[in-house]
Amino acid sequence: MPYRTLAKFVGIFAIVALTGCGQTEPPAFRLDMVKVTENEISPKHQQAIADILGAMFGTPDAPFAMPETGLDERKLKMAAGPVWSNEAGDKHGLYRRHCAHCHGISGDGQGPTAAILNPYPRDYRRGLFKFKGTFTAAQPTDEDLRRIILNGVLATAMPAFALLPPDEVDALVEYVKYLSMRGQMETALENYVFDEGLEPDAPLDPATDAELKDIIVNDLLAGVMEGWNTVVEQVVVPTEEGIPPTDRSAEEITASVNAGRELFFGAKANCVKCHGPTGLGDGQQDNYDDWSAVTVKFEDDTRALADEIKGLKQDLKKKTGDERAAAEKELKTKVAQLAVRNELIAHMLTPRRAIPRNLRDGTYRGGRRDIDLFWRVFAGIPGMGMPATGPSAPGGQGTLTEQEMWQIVDYIQSLPFEPISEPQVRRVNVRTVN
Amino acid sequence: MNPDFTHPASPWPHRWAIALACATFPLLWVGGLVTTTDSGMAVPDWPSTYGYNLFLYPWTTWLTGPWDLFVEHGHRLLGAMVGMMTIVLLALLWRRDDRRWMRWLGGAALALVIFQGVLGGMRVRFDERTLAMLHGCTGPLFFAVTVAMVVFTSRCWWLRESSAVPPSAGYIRRLALVTCILVYLQIVVGAVLRHVPVAAEPGAFVLAVRFHLFLAAAVTLHVALLAWFVLSHARTIKPLGGLAIILAGLVAVQLALGAGTWIVKFSVPAWVSDWISTGSVAVQDGGWLQTHIITAHVAAGSLLLATSLALALFGQRLLPFASAARDAVSRRWEAAV
User: What is the pTM of this model?
Assistant: First the structure.
């Protein structure tokens, strides 16, 4: 008898374990609910947008590359889907194996571990990247993305994937671009619905609406792709004459460092505004980074909506008859909106400020080569408020010459070794500059 | 007299139980390695390996093939070996140990290891992370059972010299039990952290991390108290003193490994690097240090469970309940805690 009881116990436990959890749904792409809510996109249109994106880009398990995107579907298939590998050692599901727990299935930077990290993992959906060798507003090149994936981002949670074979890194580069394009396309669609002022239940189906299809492909998608297709023209290549020679004498270097210091604290470059009179990063610290700014705006709008509801409730008392019924109806929709917003806010990542770097630490997240620092000075750090000192597009006019930028690079590299008291003498200048 | 108190007829069940526990620990380590390296799906079929019978899979392919295949197939082989060793232990107990409950415990261990094997198989067959998590929680449980059998068959278990009752005997007994339960709970939360679904909300992970940290503090506190009481009141009762020292040492190692796990996975937290410069290497994904520190953290958790369980069991056995008056000291302590 006890045998049977035992067997039964094990059996029941096993059945509960196996069926109770059941098979979880394959992960799906999530819409950007902040944008959806801001643009007041109806549930019907949310579904329509998800369907359109599904037709254009496929699912996390079965990605699809429209020819217009120029993406390599073979690489995408390698990076997407569940994690598995075969006897020959070909790895699949690379994104879920290595990235998704931080960057999220949709590339929204909201994977499960995101909230405990500082800085947060990148939200790819805006096509906005920090550490790249292109003009400030341009997308990164494949080479930029590959460099970030191989080297990681120092002093953050972004790991270096230097141990992955090159073909896997290529697949991941492709997949990051894919998620970026998909995210930008989603935003474009959400803005389109908003801008067109579509009625909540107006049809939105490119399969039956040739004009809409034309707009989506030739207008919206083309708009997204323009940035990615022109990226080769946007690479910042320093002119030969500007690059400091490798065989400089100590005096030449000192002169360059001094000139760089002058610029760093001067009005034209004004690095001191953020990085502070000591270079410790103790200047302006109250800006939000671009990703957090979206959250902050959403929270502010929500507070405003709550106040508006209070006002409407007050007004309601004075109203009678038809007027009152209309006001009640308006109030009801606003209250519902507020509930949706508050629910969203409860799940959003807490906004973070763009804290300028302590340049005395000598830790450079975007890379420590001369060219990396040159790129930072030339194009700034997008998303973090750090301005470009070079032109914003090829052929434009920047605030500094390349020679001046190299001098600043020299100064930055000498900063960790400079006595901390020295720059403080210049505090007076700093104040007048600001 | 209770037949439990007779001397064991044969040393073999004890020796074999030790061998089993010693084989189970590496199995847990490699199991942890499967998760750390995400090798679970390196062999998509089960119970076969790429169509071969588990034991007939060409060993040259196994040894020279991809790393994740090596880890996963190795884990299966080790698991099968531990399963067979459990069968032998059951046979030994049946023939050489006249305690009925002990035989049943041997049977339960076999059932558990079979269940664990099936769980692992189902995790692969359905590619289901929830099952992986369950599999990761049952492993330490089986290890605990093997260690319990080592305890029950040991000489110390039989040599129950009735020394003077230490003043805090009752307290130690209870504290040891609570510690053991807390450690297991901590292992479960750890498994949740490791197997969090990719589509989970960040908020859920934060909650689990907080709980894991809270339990770490709770376990540390309990172990510190336990070690303090054992060492000051029951040091001479073998093997309590030794176990308490090992337990305290393990907690220290485990805390360091936990901090290390965070650092090799997520880098040094910003609030720390504000104070001390944190060097110039990025987190190396899949690097040697990352892989082994994280896996060691998982394995050390099981070791902590085993040690605290051994201490709890020996405590129950070797420390008779103290008189109410003598226990008052410890009761005051308990109230304070």
Answer: 0.91
Q: Which domains does chain B have, with CATH numbers?
A: 11-160 (no CATH), 164-331 (1.20.120)
Of A83, A112, A157, the CB nearest to B267: A157
| φ/ψ of residue A285, rounded to 5 | -125, 5
Each residue of A303-323: pLDDT tens digit? 999 999 999 999 888 888 888
> Alpha-carbon distance B315 to B174, whole Å?
9
Q: How far is CA B53 from CA B44, B56, B59, B80, in A?
A: 14, 5, 12, 12
Amino acid of residue B53 = N
For residue A265, what are the contacts with CB-CB under 8 A and spacing of at least 6? Answer: A271, A272, A277, A423, A426, A429, A430, A433
- Degrees, nearest 5: CA angle B154-B156-B158: 80
- Write down the ipTM of this complex: 0.88
Residues A159/A170, Cβ–Cβ less than 8 Å: no
Rounded to a whole number of angstroms, the distance from the CA of B283 to the nearest CA of chain A is: 4
Q: Mark yes or no for CB contact A159/B42 under 8 Å.
A: no
Rounded Cα–Cα distance for residues A226 and A245 (Å) = 37
Contact between B118 and A2 using a beta-carbon 8 Å cutoff: no
pLDDT tens per residue, range A206-237: 999 999 999 999 999 999 999 999 999 999 99
Asked if B214 and B182 count as a contact pair (C-beta separation under 8 A), the reply is no
- Under 8 Å CB-to-CB from B88, ≥6 apart: which residues? B16
> How many residues make up chain B in this entry?
337
Cα separation of B178 and B219, whole Å? 9
> Which residues of A fall within a CB distance of 8 Å from B129?
24
Distance from the Cα of A205 to chain B's closest Cα (Å) equals: 28
Residue A234 has what DSSP assignment? G
CATH number among 1.10.760.10, 1.20.140.10, 3.40.50.40, 1.10.3470.10, domain A236-287+354-417: 1.10.760.10
In terms of Cα–Cα distance, which of B152, B239, B137 is closest to B195? Answer: B137
